[in-house]
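Lab notebook page, bench 4
Experiment: in silico fold of construct C2
Operator: M.H.
Input chain length: 126 residues
Purpose: comparison with the prior construct
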Amino acid sequence: MADGRVLVVDDEPDHGLTVRAILARDAVAVDFAASPEDALAQACQQTYDVAILDLRMPGRDGLSLMHALRRGQPSLRVIILTAYPSPTTCRTALTEGASAYLEKPCAPEALRAMVASLLAQSSKSP
């Protein structure tokens, strides 16, 4: 897997930490934030290649967070993760610029492959 840094944002810490553990097996640097506010604070201190954002969170949803994160990090690639999938939210997420849309729970290998693909794209970008 390509080198890079990943931010996982989920208001359910158990799920977010599970995602972090899955990706850590590939020696990818992974940070976790339990709220959109924590994610924005971390993004002020660290540059990320990929963000995995829960779609439904209190205060700010994943799409709104994606736009806020990209103001400071325009090349950030985003995976929207949701336990409440629908064709409409999928279409909206992809139309608004998400790189991928995955349902919770997702297969660990599918998540690892998606992150690896996005990190490879990130490493080729200027």
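Observations: The mean pLDDT is 91. Helices lie at 13-24, 36-45, 62-72, 87-95, 108-124.
Next step: discuss at group meeting.
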